[in-house]
Amino acid sequence: MLRGLSRSSWPAAGPPAPVRVVHLGLGAFHRAHQAWYTHRANLAGAEQAGIAAFTGRRPDAGRRLTEQNGLYGLLVRGADGDEVEVVTSISAAHDGSRVDEMVRYLADPQVGVVTLTVTEAGYRRAAGGGLDVADDAVAADIETMRSGGDALHTAPARLLAALRARRAADAGPIAVVPCDNLPANGPTVHAVMRELADLVDPALASYLDESVRFVSTTVDRITPATIDADKHAVGERLGLVDEAAVVTEPFTEWVLAGEFPAGRPGWEAAGARFVADVEPFEQRKLYLLNGAHSMLAYAGLAHGHATMAEAVAEDGLREHVERWWAEASGQLPLPAAELATYTEALLSRFANPALRHLLQQVAMDGSQKLPIRVLPVVRAERAAGRLPTGAVFAVGAWLAHLRGAGGDVVDPLASQLAADAGGATDAAARGVLGVIASDLADDTDLVAAVADACERVEAR
């Protein structure tokens, strides 16, 4: 284990930049995406911006990065070979439970941006989209915040505690930039945070409206789980041990819309796009990339595959993906030629032999993902009188996964879904649809089609 190694031991690593950005959800994707964009912005501009990053579910990443002075190698694996870049933008890494540290940073007027990658489930939203006040952790955090404590467990509460400290310090306005796959993620996160604030202290809700800007984004960069072989490859290139190495693909995208009242890093230097409306880009990515990912994860696991490249190489599964793309493309407000170019590129990205994108990683939290990746297309197609066979297959494959086809279920609603998914497939299809889409559970033709797709996946 590398401990206490000076920054000068790393190629091209100078002193840490002053913290200008706080990040919640320190994982591989953040290090391949927002941290990389900030690193590139620092290379291109005179004003340097460091990130103080906080872990999400587990403290491991923060501990490893602290031991490495915030430095790590980003291994970019493409069909034409590998490249390694040392990313230098993380100036400090903390356990997410250290709300006191988060409070300290946000009370500083020099910090102007908070970015988040806490997963769809991390925002603690109920089925209707608002804050899930029935969630035990949410309820406990509300009581803790009301009493002035900081032993908080959910990302919204931790962020709200830090924003409350910023308000008390009169540190000025700030931008919150959610980078998770939620529709209209800026307004959506604003609504969740405002509801939480109103339950804790109504004055905080007013502060969010007046002084906090919630930026909408869409993000894209496939980032599989790092394995020992990846760490070894980075170590060989850099001549040192890197326990925090991250592997990713050459492609990356970041589209943002919103205000940054306290400034921001020059992310456009790395290719970020600032637009008036991210919705077309967001829908394109959610449906065509993320929707296909979910389908391939559930069906691929049931078919005995381990990686995305293995799953998309199976002719039958690729045909289901292409059918899904045809349905989803019909619901997107973008030129057909642009969508065709995008899906053609997706096939190459999915099939990249150098990436080991584990299906089990993609399969997590399906109850949070399918309602935004697949079900909007199901509703639109049913409203038009059509039965979307590609979308139905995706839902049926998820049902098969819940029933034990292809591996363990990791989902915040796992216990409830397990109870609903058992027994006859028709009843199971109706039951799980009732959990994630109550308006579709009484659609007899849809329920029957989902049950049939599930049986076909299970029979494999």
How would you characterize this protein structure?
The strands form 3 sheets. Strands 5-2-1-6-7-8 form a 6-stranded parallel beta sheet. It has a 3-stranded mixed beta sheet with strand order 4-3-10, with helices on both faces. A 3-stranded mixed beta sheet has the order 9-11-12. By secondary structure, the chain is an alpha/beta fold. 49% of the residues lie in helices and 12% in strands. The two termini are 44 Å apart. The radius of gyration is 22 Å and the shape is globular.
The helix-and-strand class reads alpha/beta
Global mean pLDDT:
94
Number of helices: 20
Number of distinct beta strands = 12
Query: Which band does the percent of strand residues land in?
Result: 5-15%
Query: Roughly how many Å is the radius of gyration?
Result: 22 Å
Task: Give me the side-by-side strand order of the main sheet.
Answer: 5-2-1-6-7-8
User: Can you tell me the overall shape?
Assistant: globular
How many strands, which pairing sense, and closed or not: the largest β-sheet?
Answer: 6 strands, parallel
**Any low-confidence stretches, pLDDT <50, length ≥5?**
none
The separation of the N and C termini measures 44 Å
Helix content: 40-55%
